[in-house]
Design a protein that fits this description.
Oligomer: single chain
Strand order of the largest sheet: 7-4-3-8-9-10
GO molecular function: hydrolase activity
Order of helices and strands: EEEHHHEHEEEHEHEHEH
Keywords: Hydrolase
Protein name: Nicotinamidase-related amidase
Bound molecules: dicarbonimidic diamide
Shape: elongated
Pfam families: Isochorismatase
Radius of gyration: 18 Å
Helix content: 25-40%
Structural class: alpha/beta
Organism: Bradyrhizobium erythrophlei
CATH architecture: 3-Layer(aba) Sandwich
C-alpha cells in the first residue's frame, strides 16, 4: 500500500551517471528467478552450471521488491519456458549442446523448462503476488513473442528497474530489447547473477559503457535510498 511518506520521484546513483526517475512511470522487471535456474535438478544444472552462483541475487531482489510493493510500483516477473508440446521451442534451442537432460525431458522438478512444471515456477522467496504480472517467454529476451510491450504501454511505463538471472543472457537480452523500444533501463547489479562471475561483470560493463549504451547500472542500496524519503530535520522551538 502507498504511504504518506512516499516519494513521487528519486535520483538513483548509477553508472555512467545518476538517473532521476518518476516512480509512477517506473516498473520493476524481475527476470527468470525460477527454480529451473536457481535450484539443483533444473535447466541450469543440466547445462553443467553451479547453480549456487545465483543465490546471491535473491536478498537484493527481495529488498527492491519490498520497496516496489510499498510504492505501488508495477511489478513484472518473467519466466523462461515452453509449451508442453514444445511447439514454441525451436530445434536450434532444444537440440543444442550436450546437456544431461534436454528441454522437455523429465527431471526431479518435472519436465525441464516446461510451463506448469514445478521447476518452471518462481522461487518461493520472490513469489509473485496475485496482483503482479507474470510474463511467460519462450526466448531469452522478455519482449520476444510475449505481451510485455502491451503491458508496459497500458501502464504508461517509461523506466525499468531490472533484476534477475542470468546477467549476460536473459537480463542482457531483455535490456537490449527494452533499450531499442525506448525504455530507460536501470540494472540492479547485486540483484543480477550469472553462473560465471566474470560474465556477470562483463555483462554489466557492456550495458553502462560508452555513456550507457544500453542503460544504467546501479545497486539495490542506491535504489532503496532513492525510494526512501530523507528524514525531516527537527526544528527547534526556541
Ligand atoms: C538462460 C536465462 N541462461 N534466464 N536463461 O538460459 O538467462
Amino acid at each position: 500500500m502507498a504511504n504518506s511518506q512516499q516519494l513521487s520521484r528519486g535520483t538513483v546513483a548509477a553508472e555512467p551517471e545518476p538517473i532521476d526517475l518518476d516512480w509512477s512511470t517506473t516498473a520493476l522487471l524481475i527476470i527468470d528467478m525460477q527454480r529451473d535456474f536457481m535450484e539443483p535438478g533444473g535447466f541450469g544444472e543440466t547445462l553443467g552450471n553451479d547453480v549456487s552462483q545465483l543465490a546471491r541475487a535473491v536478498k537484493p531482489i527481495a529488498a527492491v521488491l519490498g520497496a516496489a510493493r510499498a510504492h505501488d510500483m508495477l511489478v513484472v516477473h518473467t519466466r523462461e519456458g515452453h509449451l508442453p508440446d514444445l511447439s514454441d521451442a525451436p530445434a536450434a534451442k532444444t537440440e543444442r549442446g550436450a546437456p544431461s537432460l534436454r528441454i522437455g525431458d523429465p527431471g526431479p522438478m518435472g519436465r525441464i523448462l516446461i510451463r506448469g512444471e514445478a521447476g518452471h515456477d518462481i522461487i518461493p522467496a520472490l513469489y509473485p503476488l496475485d496482483s503482479e504480472i507474470v510474463i511467460d517467454k519462450p526466448g531469452k529476451g522478455a519482449f520476444y513473442a510475449t505481451e510485455l510491450s502491451d503491458v508496459l504501454q497500458k501502464y504508461g511505463i517509461e523506466n525499468l528497474l531490472v533484476c534477475g538471472v542470468t546477467t549476460e543472457v536473459c537480463v542482457n537480452s531483455t535490456v537490449r530489447e527494452a533499450n531499442d523500444r525506448g525504455y530507460r533501463c536501470v540494472v540492479v547489479a547485486d540483484g543480477c547473477a550469472s553462473y560465471f562471475p566474470e560474465f556477470h561483470e562483463m555483462g554489466l560493463k557492456m550495458i553502462k559503457a560508452q555513456g550507457g549504451i544500453f542503460g544504467w547500472v546501479s545497486d539495490s542500496a542506491a535504489v532503496l535510498k532513492a525510494m526512501t524519503p530523507a528524514p525531516i530535520p527537527e526544528t527547534s522551538s526556541i
